Structures are given as structure tokens and as C-alpha cells.
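ligand=fe (ii) ion
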Amino acid sequence: MDTSKSISHLLQPDNPAHKRGDGSLSFSNLETVGWTQFRCSDVLEKLASKVLEIAALVFALPESEKRAYYMQKIKYQSGWRDYKQEGRPSEIWQIRPVEAKECWPAHLASERAGILELLDQSIKEFGPELDFLLQAYGGAPNEFYESLRRGPSVVRLLHYSAGNPTMRFAEHTDLGFATLLVAETSPGLELITQEGMWKLAELGTNNWILASGDMFAIRSSGSIPSALHRVVSAPMDRLAIAIFLHLDEDYPLSRDVEGNVLTADAFLNRAIQWNAAT
Ligand SMILES: [Fe+2]
């Protein structure tokens, strides 16, 4: 890995950006608002550019074809789906290493392989970085990397069509361990700053954001909060890529005073049920 362009140097305590405290490129930002922006490796940049082209290709398919791959929960949710209600993207497509046939067009197998390469490479590069970071909160070496390799991580392609409504995805935190916000074709993603203001992310294929999720917050006992973010309306069509990093379903997120373990899977199911009921 080319460490000069990875997140490593941002997370080192002697990182000059940290010392200067000059905004988003700092370790302290993760501890205060749960996200940090950084330049990704050249390998990831190329993969992200390719996947952005694939997103344009698949969302342009006829709706009847997309509907044939309507999102279904085989083990986890994969496939295409649209949203008719406000406060959501117009359509999304989720791709995981399993469940291909029912969830993705067979004639676009090489495109699917390109998306999965982005996922695989992201885990290879960020797993060790997250290990480094979490060791400050009691993590064992390789603990997270190994768990991420087994977990149900997913690439989500998003399409926001132009125009109304003004707020396209209301403020929220992500349920998973961490989210890589990879690229967007026009600005729209906003994150909360240390001052409590909204900041436009302005992602590029080489300018990514690592946003911690609810599981990260639990695992670090609240030392790293989950990142509050939202998507505002854009005057033009907007495509975006997000990678949701999930731990192995048996991963112990926390232990209560009686020694009962909260696993990643138990937390996810509880949170999904709670969201559905509210
Ligand atoms: Fe999100």
C-alpha cells in the first residue's frame, strides 16, 4: 500500500494536520464528529472512477429490467430498488459478493466484478487502518480486518434525480461499523462539523470520507461518535457510491455488566426493527 496517500498518515498522533487542527483532515475530527476526509490510493481512485461509470450504465437500464432485480433479503438486502417517498434517493443498487443471480444482470458480470474489486480493495486498505485506530480503544491486532473480511459489507450505488424535494436524505447516522463515502457526480452530501454546522463534502474519486457508524461508536464506548450526515437536493442528476463496512455477524460489539455480549448481527436486527417501528 502506498502509505503516503493512505489514511495512515492522518491517523498518526504526530500528523502535522492533527497538530495544526486545520479542519477535516485530522484524527481529532474522528473523535469529535466521527468522520474524516482524505486522499485515497491511486488504485482505489481508478476503481472508484470505473464504478461511477457502471452506476451510470445500470441506472440507465429500462425500469422493467431493473425491476427484475428488485431488492430482496436472501441473507442481507441486495439488488435494485426505487423509492417513491420524499427524503430518499430515487433509486439504489446494492452489490455484495454473494447473491449475484437474483440481484444483478448476468450480461453485466464483468461490471459486477469491477464493483466487487472496489469492495475487496477497500477492505484490504482500510481494515488495517481501522485496526490501527481501534487499538487505542482496546482492539487486538488484526481484530477488525479479519472480521471485516468475513462480514456482509456492501457497495451501494445511489441515484438522486434532479429537483424536488429540497432535502433528499434527512440527517442520520449509519447503522454499520463504518461507511466509505467514495464519489459523487455533483455535490449534495453534507456532514456535521465540530461547530455543529453542515459542511458540503465535495467528494471526488480520489477524495473520500470515512464516516464512523453506530457500531463503531459502541465498540469505542462512544469515544468515536457515529457521523451525522445528510444529502441535500442538487439542481442536476446525482450519482454517488457508498461502501458500508460490516463486521462479521458474531463480532462482539460490547459486553454488559452481567457479561452478556451484544453481537454485530443482534445489534443490526434490533436497530432495523426499531427503525421499522418508528
Ligand atoms: Fe448514510
